[in-house]
Design brief:
By secondary structure, the chain is mainly alpha-helical. The chain contains 15 helices and four strands. It has three domains: 163 residues; 213 residues, no CATH class; 41 residues, no CATH class. This is Protein YTP1.
Length: 462
Amino acid sequence: MAAASLASAAVMLAAGFPLVAAHEHHNVTHIDPGVPIGATMYVHMTLQTFTWGILFPIGMVLGLTKSKYHVPLQSVGIVLSLFGSYLGHHHGGREYPATVHGLMAKIIFVLLLTQASLGIFLKLHIMETTVRPHIRRAHKVVGVLYPIVGWTQMLFGVATALNFCRGGNLGQCAAHYIMGSAFIAYAAILVIMLNVGGAWLKRTGFSQEMLDSTVITVWGIINTFTEHHGGPWTHKDMQHTMMGVLWWAGGMLGMFLSRKGQRSFVPAIIIVFTGWGMSAHEQDLMISSKIHALFGYALIAAGVLRVVEVCFVLHDGPSDSAHIRIFQHLPPYLLVLGGTLFISATNEEMHNANDRGIDHVSYALFDFSLSFLIYLVITFLVHLYQNTGRNAAANRGGVDQAPEAGYSQLATRGGDPDADGPEAYELTEHGSDDDAVKIGGEDEVDWIGNGEHRGGGGGVRL
């Protein structure tokens, strides 16, 4: 059934790709902001945001936990994405020329078709000792890319719909979108490490601050040499360049202080200093200055609270994933808020809001609301990872890497039983999640892992 659904989705993708590739963008050369967007395009936006912002990330998590719902959910997502793309090319209202959003759509179609094809191959269970391990790894890598690709395409979509980031505004747009997204990604990493990364940090001997400081150092070096593009230096060029110097200088100090698994205050202080710089970053419009100031205040608060967490809540020790304090959610949430504010603070966005009579309070309240939704998605996905598939069974039974209730893992020829993806778990008949599962004859599977199998049965391939 799962293989059939994947095959159907792949066929639909193959049939729909020529339509996307041949789309002529209505033979227009520019976007007319005076023309309404149109109801069909709003449906396209809503459907694709739901599919790529919620549905596919959930499917990715279910794949990582080897859940039986992974394949059906991803198949539904492929169909919805294909339908949403069709709407994006068959609409009334505002017309759009060829843009990076359209180019990214073609890349996404190739990605979807590749992922579906890899999934079908894995479902066939052929070449298990030669080709299949490589296909499994490729399938996982492509799946993990979905949230990143979806987020990028959503940003491209907003810029295209509102005719932003074209011509001389491209560089400024890219800076805001990349840095804002980086803060949100950093927050997501902090949430992941807070909930499920403690064991990995302990095993590798790193502290979270060592990882943070390393990334900050690399990013600071890049920023130092990419913020001035020739010509006279402006105050913005100097501020952005010195921000890069701050990051690599502080990052190297953080790397030194974080050696041998020690905690450090440095990454948090760098965020505080960055926030202070942004809060004093004067802009042409009052609304722009206010939003940039709020962005800076959010970073300052995140950095200060991170120092409090490391030094006074955890007392320089590692986080305990089994006993997470509510306070520990404040720094990553504020980073999400800061990233959301910065993404929405480009020159064109600020002028658009000002022209529409939107004040900084209303604009900020919208950003606050959006940051709540983004943090909800992040924390929900982490919660889902901890409580679905093999992780749910492990939590119920107290055994790591237990198979999902209602599924038995396919027999493997040696190697790690976790090496297979979700396709290795085939549906079996069962009475309840707490009972052993009957698989023909007298064979039983003891989900807890402490009992003996009756009969000669091992893994079963259906």
